[in-house]
Structures are given as C-alpha cells and as structure tokens.
Amino acid sequence: MEACELTGYMQNPMLLQELLEKLPTQLKLQWPMFPKDAKTPSMEFLSKWIYDIAEAASQVTSPLYHKKSGSLNHHTEAPKKQVKEIKCVVCNEPGHKIHSCPSFKAAPHQQKMSFLKNHKLCQQCLNRHHQKCQREKVCGIRGSRSKHHPLIHEMQPTLEAAKSSSLKGPAMVTNVHTPKGNHTQRSRESGSTYFSVIPIQFINKTKVTNTFAFLDEGSALTLIDNKIFKQLGLNGVPDPLYLKWTNDTTREENASERVTLMVANPHNGNHFHLEEVHSVDTLDLPVQSIDIRALAKEFPQLAGLPIASYTNARPSILIGTNNWNFVITLKIKEGAWHQPIASKTRLGWTLQSFTPSRATRANVSVRMCGCRDADAKMHNIIKQAFSLDATTAKPLSSLEETQALTRLESTTALKNGRFSLKFYYLIATQTH
C-alpha cells in the first residue's frame, strides 16, 4: 500500500476488521492486548504485529525438508476383456434377457412360477442372486402393491373391483371377470359410468379397420395396443417408454415403437393424422356398452345425436393430450345434474357421465351468503360511531361577554329598517 501510495487504505477500519476476522480465535484475543500508539490502529500496526508473531513462531519450530519426487508415465496395452454374450435362460436365444423374452411372456402363470423355482430366480427382479433383492418397486398391475415382477402377476378369475391400467386416467368402472370373458355391469340402481369411448377407423393404405378409441385428457401420450398395431402391419421407429402413474406405479415398454396413424370419423368420413403414437404391450382399457335408444328415451338431450350403440367394446387406442385436437370438446349437450353429457369432437360424438347409486346419491344444497348485507350494517355502525365522536366548534367567551350579548339582544330590536334601543336610567335618591 505504501509503494502504491494508497495511504487512504492504511487507516481503513473496515479493511482492518475484515483481516482480523480471518485470523484464528487465539490471535483475535491477542490483538486487543497488543500495545498501540493511536486510538485507531492502522494497517502498519497490524503488519508489525503479525510479523512479530511469525518471527516468534520461526524460532520454536524446525524447518521441514521435502524430498523431491517425480512420476514417469508409461503406456501398456491391457488385455482385452471378453464381453459375455447376453443369453436368455428361457429360450437360450442371444440378445435379450428373460424380461423381454416372448416365450416367457406368453407362458401361463403356473409355468412361469415353476420355471423361476427350478432355476432359482428371484420373483422380484427375475435374476439369480444370493442376497436380499434390492428392487423395491411394486407390481402396479390393477393396483397390486405386491413386490413381485409384473410379468408374473396372476389374473384371478373372480369378481373384483379392478382399477384401470390406463396411465394418468380417471378411475374406471367395476369389471366382472368370468371364464367366458370380461364385460361391464351397469344398472340404474348401482350407478353407471360412461367414458369418452368413440368408434373410429384405422386406415393403412387400402386397409380399413374398425375399432374404438378412448379420449383421455389426463394422459400425456397417445398409446395403441400392440395387438392392433401388428394387425395393421405397422412399422415404426423404436422408442422405449417409461410410464408412470399415481402412487409411483411405473411401467417399462422397452419394445415400444412410435408411428403416425391415419384415422377417420366413421360418421362423416373425415380423415386425420395422429402424431407420436406409441405402441404398448397391453393397453387393457375397460369394456363399455351403450344403448343409445334407451338412453335417448330417458334423457331427451341425447335424442337425434349421431351416437352409435355398441356392446362390450374395448378401446384399442388411448388418445392423449399430445393429440389435443381430437381430445378437446367442440360442442356439448347436457341435461340435469348427474345426467349423461354428449360431447362433440373431431372424431364424432361421445358420451360421458357418472351417475351415483341411489343409496349414495348426494343432495347438493346451495347456501346464499349474506356477506354484503353484513358489510353494509357494519359500515353504518362505524359511520355512526364516528359521527358521535365528532367535535363541533364552540365559541369561548367569558361570563361578562355572555351577559353583555344577552342584554344587547334583549334591548335591541329592528323596526322599519332601524334599530331601537332601550336605555335604563338609574335614579339616585338622596336621603337626608
């Protein structure tokens, strides 16, 4: 600082305090005991004090001598490791593991369990290990919380309240699983639910395939069942998916392919392109039936709408918000509360409703709030309180002034434009 002629910094107390804060605690305590010539110590005092401490420390410590060290880099060619070829333990075919083996996926449940037991494979990760499995993911199929692998989930042929496997979709209706197939039971007594299921046509060159689509505004993707994907003879771009639903339920689709499909509205024949459609192994959307004639008799708002009746229709494609032009509603027909709503989309008219059971039907009560009247009353009360507390100007006068004004008002009168005054005479009486 002296060499640079920065004399102003030599007396800077803030700079001095910052340097003191960087010292160890023991030296901070010694600094106030160091004798100083001025009330405000300068940087020169601090420099001399630190120099004396360094001199004292050098006298009680011995110098350290470090040996010189160096390094020599040399290159050697390591032997190439032989990469072990991946081979499936089920079909003995190279290139894939048991997770993506078609033979294992198509095998019955009992055969899968016997194979895992005979080969001592873990039911959680489908691998062989001797310690506790580190895989903590649950199955997730139909809401299962078991920690087995989804490929060995057993579909029980009993009555159960099945949850939908459509990703990020609403809660589904109760499906009844029987040996003859799956169908949906609905009744006016137990309540009915209709989802946005609509008949569409797939067009691949000259081939036209009739199917049903599920319009889901809660899904971020458009998914197609692998069965109809192969039936159409489509070839897409490999694009693996990692799907996630509520409660951290996940699903991996490593064999997914991405394509662009052409669909048509069966009612008017309009053609559209669905972009970014991903194939999935099993879509498994709920089965739905609609009798539009019976519904139109019960709900007049549905009469005359071009809605087709169908029985036990299972959608093979789920259209999400990445194709929002086909999901959004252009026009609606609605009736009373809890009655079905007909929605018009670019792919046609669809039906939506949820009618609760009579036993659980909730009565909706509307309460009119009187907040405005209460506010007005409160405003008037506060206004009156301020008016009572308001002070009025009162003249300040003495007793003599008040008596003079009173006498003036009593003796003065205005008559014919003139004031008349009354004079009082004091008659003095002299006593002899």
Tally of contiguous helical segments: 11
Strand arrangement in the largest pleated sheet: 4-5-14-6-11-10
Overall geometry comes to flat
Report strand %. Answer: 15-25%
Derived structural class: alpha+beta
Q: What does the main sheet amount to?
A: 6 strands, mixed, barrel
Which value, in Å, is the CA radius of gyration? 47 Å
Oligomer: single chain
Mean pLDDT: 76
Total beta strand runs: 19
Would you write up a description of this structure?
The chain is of the alpha+beta class. Among the domains are: 7-55, no CATH class; 98-152, no CATH class; 175-355, no CATH class. It has eleven helices and 19 strands. It has helices spanning 7-10, 13-21, 25-30, 43-60, 102-106, 109-118, 226-231, 292-298, 324-327, 371-389, 399-411, and strands at residues 175-178, 181-184, 192-194, 197-204, 207-215, 222-225, 237-238, 241-244, 250-253, 257-264, 271-280, 288-290, 310-313, 317-319, 331-333, 341-345, 348-355, 412-415, 418-421. The strands form six sheets. A six-stranded mixed beta barrel has the order 4-5-14-6-11-10. Strands 3-17-16-15 form a four-stranded antiparallel sheet. A hairpin with a 6-residue loop joins strand 10 (257-264) and strand 11. It is flat. The N and C termini lie far apart (117 Å). The model is unreliable at 71-75, 156-191 and 357-367 (pLDDT under 50).
Features of the shown structure:
432 residues, alpha+beta, 6-stranded mixed barrel, 4-stranded antiparallel β-sheet, 11 helices, 22% strand
SSE blueprint:
Blueprint: H1 7-10, H2 13-21, H3 25-30, H4 43-60, H5 102-106, H6 109-118, E1 175-178, E2 181-184, E3 192-194, E4 197-204, E5 207-215, E6 222-225, H7 226-231, E7 237-238, E8 241-244, E9 250-253, E10 257-264, E11 271-280, E12 288-290, H8 292-298, E13 310-313, E14 317-319, H9 324-327, E15 331-333, E16 341-345, E17 348-355, H10 371-389, H11 399-411, E18 412-415, E19 418-421
Parallel strand pairs: 5-14, 6-11
Antiparallel strand pairs: 1-2, 3-17, 4-5, 4-10, 6-14, 7-10, 8-9, 10-11, 12-13, 15-16, 16-17, 18-19
